[in-house]
């Protein structure tokens, strides 16, 4: 059994995936045993398989079709033999030994899932931590982002002290570390979501059985390009996932 398994789902973003993998290998302590899975959903040919030869801890998997975000991460479930499991986006870069910090934090607190400090390349904190989702908050976020600033500030937990740990209802799913057994018990991500909202759903499930905490003691860089705000096809997919989420968890207005 390894200390941690890590999954990165690729989709036509070879350079980002390479950078993420290289940063993980460079900064993770050699005392942490790990297995990093690349699940390649790409429609274009790439050279990601070569990472297996560059790094003994990397396993390249190609399911032969685009499984979506959650489906891609779930693809490794039968293979996992680890104490902890990390869900990592291709646009993540490590600049320090974040996994050592996060695993120690989880061990001490006995928690189910953790999210680190997520920043941009300049070190500015991202608004990736949110209170329970409501129809009003999602509507403002997607269609009226320049309005209702006080409500947006509340929803994105800007009133919290980010120098201290705190419970998080929903953390954006770019970098999450979860107890592997808990992830397995939940069946991974809910397969009803192809893309979008599956992270909110997973966080809610984790908080029902255990707890999700913000850890302020380490930071990772996240590029965070919000595609659904620019692409009509992705917007439709986002709205469909929202519908499924609220059908499942209830239509909370505000």
Describe this structure in words.
35% of the residues lie in helices and 23% in strands. With 254 residues, the chain is an alpha/beta fold. It has one domain: Spore Coat Polysaccharide Biosynthesis Protein SpsA, Chain A, CATH 3.90.550.10. The longest helix is centred in the C-terminal third of the chain and has 18 residues, at 232-249. Helix 2 (51-54) links the parallel strand 2 and strand 3 (58-61).
Radius of gyration: 17 Å
| Poorly predicted runs | none
Q: Whole-number average pLDDT?
A: 95
**Strand and helix order:** EHEHEHEEHEEHHEEEHHEH
CATH class division: Alpha Beta
Q: Percent of residues in helical segments?
A: 25-40%
> What best-fitting shape do the alpha-carbon axes yield?
globular
Q: State the secondary-structure class.
A: alpha/beta
Largest sheet: 9 strands, mixed
Strand content: 15-25%
CATH architecture: Alpha-Beta Complex
- In CATH terms, the superfamily is Spore Coat Polysaccharide Biosynthesis Protein SpsA, Chain A
Give the distance, in angstroms, between the N- and C-terminal Cα atoms: 44 Å
- The DSSP helix count reads 9
How is the CATH topology named?
A: Spore Coat Polysaccharide Biosynthesis Protein SpsA, Chain A
Total number of strands: 11
Number of domains as seen in the coordinates? 1
What's this entry about, in short?
Helices cover 35% and strands 23% of the residues.
List the helices and strands and how they pair.
Elements: E1 2-10, H1 14-27, E2 34-40, H2 51-54, E3 58-61, H3 68-74, E4 82-88, E5 92-94, H4 98-109, E6 113-119, E7 129-130, H5 135-143, H6 149-155, E8 166-167, E9 170-171, E10 175-179, H7 180-185, H8 198-209, E11 212-222, H9 232-249
Parallel strand pairs: 1-2, 1-4, 2-3, 6-11
Antiparallel strand pairs: 4-10, 5-11, 6-10, 7-9, 8-11
